[in-house]
Amino acid sequence: YIMNEIKSSVKLSENIYEGIGQSVCQADIIVPDNMPDILKILQVSAVAQKENKIISKGKISFTGKIKVDIIYMPESMSGVRCIKYDIPLSFAENVSAAEEGMFIAIDAKVVHLEYQMVNSRKINVKAIVEAKSKVTANKNIEYICGVEDLEVQMREKHIKASSVVLSAEKEVITKEDIQIPQAAENIIKLITD
């Protein structure tokens, strides 16, 4: 007895790769000419920012920057100052199954930060960035959805499937103005002494 199958196809998303990698970035940051010398560093913070993601045959990569903020007490003046600096960031990983046209999602964050004051005009900053990567691909799957012979008893099973149609990332910037009272300068001096 021969049954004629009725086939259909559906486009599904398949996880090709998931992994975690690291990149080390380092820079010597020079105090700008219009800012006073450093007496003491109070805080250094850094955030990884992605700019371009690239997927090619056998490789995934991205470029961006590490946005560094250095808050310090100056030698010759009262108050505090802040230096903002961008360290170039690049990351690449070999993924044998990667192909152009696949979707890539990368979440990058600074997991370790070191800094050292070289002199009153120079700070060495080293950051380790962790990148969590996920590569997905859309592929057509053919499946049997019925038979032409209506006298045959069939058992059906419903499945849920997903497909990535569009993938995009947007940068969102939040800003908040903080009023620092005049007495804050004396509080900072007490904390740092």
Characterization of the model:
The protein has 193 residues and is mostly beta strands. It has one helix at 184-192; strands at 5-30, 38-56, 59-74, 81-94, 103-119, 122-147. The longest helix is centred in the last third of the chain and has 9 residues, at 184-192. The chain starts with a strand and ends with a helix.
Structural features:
193 residues; 3-stranded antiparallel β-sheet; mainly beta; 61% strand
Total DSSP helices: 1
Secondary-structure element pattern, one letter each: EEEEEEH
Any idea what the shape is? elongated
Radius of gyration: 27 Å
Beta strands, count:
6
The percentage of residues in β strands lies in over 45%
**Largest sheet: spatial strand order:** 1-6-5
What share of the residues lie within helices? under 10%
Overall SS class: mainly beta
Topology diagram in text:
Layout: E1 5-30, E2 38-56, E3 59-74, E4 81-94, E5 103-119, E6 122-147, H1 184-192
Antiparallel strand pairs: 1-6, 2-3, 3-4, 5-6
Brief overview:
By secondary structure, this protein is mainly beta. The protein contains 1 helix and 6 strands, in the order E-E-E-E-E-E-H.
